[in-house]
Specification:
The complex is a heterodimer of chains A (301) and B (685). Chain A has 301 residues and is mostly helical. Chain A is built from 13 helices and no strands. The chains are: A mainly alpha (301), B alpha/beta (685).
């Protein structure tokens, strides 16, 4: 495109350095980033919901009306009322307090598992995408094979062997996510490695590791951020599913998945026991997905 | 073919743009792109619109066709097509006009054609829609139109899909579609940009033929002044959305009356210019960003003649001659300016230094066994110390592959490359660090050659650390500052990231990076082809300065013969993966030379000699590199083909003078007799 006049190009010329108002400082760049991100309503709404649950997961001891573990034999299976806004469960524990406290476990497992999956995925994706060749062919076929299995089946199988524990859940989800993230990273790297700055870096004598980490990686942060957000949503979902199947956190944790599972027994008699943690889980996942959608829009623009 | 204008016509102009002002709205900000432009095209007239990228040429064309994007807003003015206002016309009327009476040919034919329809269907559709023809009728008409646009073998092309055709053929299809309804106005937006020189020549020939046949008025948009001066009777120069000068193409380019036009004509290296004799005059500064409010004349910040009045008051269009207007207070003074560029003392002595780079039988193929494409075949060429070797050829001739092999970015090749007396390994990583540091490259596309995530300071600092082996922080800092100064980057630019820089500044950073370790050879792969001419001049001057101060050699790859002629000491011409001519620039660009070089030279449109009489017409398209012709590779298009010997036997190297060789069956004495003219001798200094 030689000529311009189309809005994209005029925007580019508007950045002409002769007219730049001085070097951008870190704070100014950060402020600009915030302003751009703030333009997506979806993103703002999603982030607000997620932020609420993250704050709750950290500070619930300050806001819960009652001790989530306190038994009250006098008021079991009580319906929602002024005393117990969300009602009580079969042991007389306050459902509101347990719902607020239940965010902690899921918001510990999901971020840790996502981080693990990202780390593995970035390493595998960078290496495969940058080197191509035989290693890439083999690894990507293995990835295809792994992706052919329903994730939850693999998770259940592995946890059945390793035994149920929070650490194992994190490891398993991280492991399952690795090939998925690797695929995204690889395709981004494939496009990026053909750019001339990579060739220039080779001519300067940079090591392959430096080129992958210092040259290519910073330029694939956009797809990586979106992928991370989507993975985070799935991690919340998967960890709740595994708790529901009693393969993760154990009683008497107020974990949502676990509580829903136990609340099933009283579903007809006291539906609020399962309903409120389920609603909480739903808002968190919806919030994360809204944020992911918003990010994708922002990056697409 | 056109009906004579009916006597009742309100005006004799086909298109009249009156005081048009329009802009784009982006993020609640309105920025003006076209400011009060008035243009009038008479019936059958060809009007050229020139200017750098971002001047608003394409926006104006889109406004004429009413194809503006939804965020565009026309705030004033009228566009009259044969007396009717296009801006107030309703959708139905526009539809009718656009199909029948006015048509547009776009810059990139590859993306303007529908890839899922055959050529026949696409052209036929125009007839079916606008002429209400039946399918069979439309197909016949389409085929006839293909013959009119001189496409080889129309019946076969009818059933082809656009991707099966070459760029030149695709552009012919675009012309066929545009002319299908015999329009009165044809808008051509950079119709030959992106096409090879010889193909460009063909397409321009076609436009000239079609013009005499159809008699449509043409709005011809191009950044290439040579082409415009050849194709158009009248020319308008657009700068930052303002029409700064308008006149007949003859007057306007010979005796420009606006400093911007003067700047444009002076910053282009012409075929008779050479780095030792002339210095290019780049236009300082950059185009003001769209929407910026400017007091006084828009060109003031870049104008070498500006005075107090220019800053205070906006000039109007002043008459500067017969049908010649200029938006400059001092247009009279420009007329009395010295006509030529400042000549410099002749310092052209033959370089007799030892070879720094030597290629022997370099061959590089891509692809698996069944579909091998040989991108470079048996290339043998040497570069002496302190010399600039220009490599010219059309796209697909193997220039870039040659560059990649030299610097070590192509993985496997056969043959020998010796650099400073040492044989080089294929890949840069396998080469000795000291050799790699002394052999660097400047890439074609400044947008992708710099990592957008790093600041300029980081990019240069990294290069200094790796190429010069400097490790102490303060030494790196000092060297980065020195490098930035040597390519005329201000310290302010060091803190910026590449996306915030203009193309010219990016290319300066890329040059500074290549020079970080005091290289002895720099391979430049079309370093200015993505830049505007005013910026190109500055980069070329910089290349000359760096060469003189640092005693470095260049392999300079370009498709622009003017640029190569200006810069190169010796030239290698490539065609279909082979080097077909090597010699001192003076000798290679003057007869006797290879018929292909002759054709390339004749295809260069020159402001000084717009006449098309001496141009050589090459038949057909460049053959596919996967199935190169036997014998001489050029025989399928050669106007001087001798007979069967050209088709069967590989031509020998013919020697003309000491160091000038070319690959042809015709001996130099015979060529000299038939290739007269060529290019004028350089003007004495």
């Amino acid at each position: 495109m030689r000529d311009a006049g189309s809005p994209e190009v005029t925007a580019a010329t508007a950045d002409a350095p002769e007219r730049a108002v001085g070097p951008p400082t870190v704070t100014r760049r950060f402020a600009r980033l915030l302003r751009v991100l703030g333009q997506s309503r979806t993103l703002v709404l999603g982030t607000t919901i997620v932020a609420f649950w993250v704050l709750d997961a950290m500070f619930w001891p300050l806001i819960v009306p009652q001790n989530p573990q306190a038994l009250n034999p006098a008021a079991t299976l009580a319906a929602p009322s002024f005393a117990h806004w969300f009602g009580t469960d079969d042991l007389g524990r306050d459902v509101l307090s347990r719902t607020l406290a239940g965010a902690t476990s899921v918001l510990t497992v999901a971020p840790a598992a996502t981080a693990l999956g990202l780390l593995g995925g970035i390493i595998v994706g960078l290496v495969c995408g940058y080197y191509r060749g035989l290693v890439d062919d083999i690894v990507m076929r293995v990835v295809d094979a792994l992706l052919a299995f329903p994730l939850i089946v693999i998770a259940v199988l592995v946890l059945a062997v390793l035994g149920p524990s929070v650490v194992n859940v994190i490891l398993v989800i991280g492991f399952i996510f690795t090939p998925i993230v690797a695929r995204t990273v690889r395709s981004a790297v494939l496009a990026e490695r053909e750019r001339e700055y990579v060739a220039a870096a080779r001519l300067l004598g940079n090591s392959s590791l430096t080129i992958m980490v210092a040259e290519i990686l910073p330029n694939i942060t956009a797809p990586l951020t979106v992928e991370a957000t989507i993975r985070f949503g799935y991690a919340v979902f998967t960890s709740a599913t595994l708790s529901f199947l009693s393969l993760g956190v154990q009683q008497p944790s107020p974990d949502w998945g676990l509580t829903i599972s136990l609340g099933r027994a009283n579903l007809e008699l006291a539906p609020w026991i399962a309903l409120f943690p389920a609603a909480a889980l739903a808002t968190l996942i919806v919030g994360i997905n809204l944020a992911a959608d918003g990010l994708r829009q922002v990056f697409a623009e | 073919m056109i009906p004579p204008p009916s006597p009742g016509r309100p005006s004799d102009s086909t298109l009249e743009i009156q005081q048009l002002t329009l802009g784009y709205r982006r993020r609640r900000q309105w920025s003006r792109v076209i400011a009060g432009v008035s243009i009038r095209l008479d019936r059958g007239e060809a009007y050229g619109l020139v200017g750098e990228s971002g001047c608003g040429k394409t926006t104006l064309a889109m406004a004429v066709m009413r194809y503006l994007p939804p965020n565009a807003e026309i705030t004033a003015g009228r566009i009259l097509f044969e007396g009717q206002d296009l801006l107030t016309a309703d959708a139905g009327r526009l539809e009718e006009l656009r199909g029948n009476r006015m048509a547009m040919v776009y810059q990139d034919p590859g993306s303007a054609l529908n890839p899922s329809l055959t050529v026949g269907r696409q052209i036929g559709e125009v007839y079916r829609r606008h002429r209400r023809m039946r399918r069979a009728e439309a197909a016949d008409a389409a085929q006839a139109m293909l013959a009119t646009v001189q496409i080889a073998d129309p019946p076969r092309v009818m059933h082809r899909y656009p991707h099966e055709l070459s760029g030149g053929q695709q552009q012919r299809i675009m012309f066929a579609m545009a002319l299908a309804t015999d329009p009165d106005l044809l808008v051509l937006d950079e119709p030959t940009t992106g096409l090879d020189a010889t193909v460009e020549g063909e397409v321009l020939d076609l436009v000239e033929n079609l013009r005499s046949k159809f008699g449509a008025a043409i709005l011809f948009i191009s950044h290439n002044l040579g082409i415009v001066s050849r194709m158009c009777e009248r020319v308008g120069v657009l700068y930052a959305g303002h029409l700064v000068e308008e006149g007949s193409s003859r007057d306007l380019f010979r005796a420009p009356r606006h400093p911007y036009t003067l700047g444009l004509t002076r910053c282009i290296p012409r075929l008779d210019m050479h780095k030792h004799r002339h210095r290019l005059e780049p236009i300082p500064g950059t185009l003001p960003p769209a929407g910026e409010t400017i007091c006084g004349c828009v060109y003031v910040p870049r104008c070498p003649f500006s005075r107090a009045r220019c800053r205070a008051e906006a000039p109007t269009l002043f008459p500067a001659g017969p049908r010649h207007t200029s938006r400059c207070f001092y247009h009279d003074e420009l007329a009395n300016l010295a006509p030529a560029t400042a000549a410099m003392p002749e310092a052209s002595e033959a370089i007799s230094a030892p070879d720094i780079l030597n290629l022997q039988d370099l061959t590089k193929s891509y692809g698996a066994r069944s579909t091998t494409v040989t991108a470079v075949r048996d290339a043998s060429v040497a570069v002496r110390r302190g010399e600039i070797l220009g490599v010219v050829g059309e796209s697909g001739s193997g220039k870039t592959t040659l560059a990649k092999c030299i610097v070590g970015l192509a993985d496997v090749w056969t043959g020998r490359i010796s650099f400073e007396g040492t044989d080089l390994a294929a890949r840069a990583e396998q080469r000795e660090a000291t050799l790699r540091r002394r052999l660097q490259m400047v890439f074609q596309n400044p947008d992708t050659a710099l990592n957008p995530s790093h600041s300029v300071r980081h990019i240069l600092g990294r290069a200094v650390r790796l190429l010069a082996g400097t490790t102490s922080g303060s030494a790196i800092e000092a060297r980065v500052a020195e490098l930035a100064a040597s390519v005329r980057l201000s310290p302010r630019h060091l803190e910026l990231h590449p996306p915030a820089l203009s193309g010219g500044l990016k290319q300066r950073v890329a040059l500074a990076r290549a020079f970080a370790g005091s290289p002895s050879l720099v391979v430049c792969d079309e370093p200015t082809s993505a830049l505007d001419v005013s910026v190109q001049a500055a980069i070329l001057n910089l290349l000359v300065d760096l060469q003189e101060t640092q005693q470095v050699s260049y392999v300079f790859i370009s498709h622009d013969l003017g640029v190569v002629r200006y810069l190169a000491d010796r030239v290698a011409v490539m065609y279909l993966a082979e080097i077909i001519e090597i010699g001192p620039a003076d000798a290679a660009f003057r007869p006797p030379h290879h018929p292909y070089t002759e054709a390339l030279l004749s295809a260069v449109p020159d402001l000084e000699r717009p006449g098309a009489e001496q141009r050589i017409h090459l038949e057909g398209d460049i053959p596919s590199p996967s199935h190169p012709p036997a014998g001489c590779r050029f025989h399928t298009r050669c106007p001087r083909v001798l007979g069967s010997i050209c088709r069967t036997e590989k031509p020998p190297w013919q020697r003309d003078g000491e160091s000038h060789v070319y690959r042809c069956h015709i001996p130099p004495a015979e060529l000299r007799a038939s290739q007269f003219g060529g290019l004028p001798r350089p003007a004495p200094s």
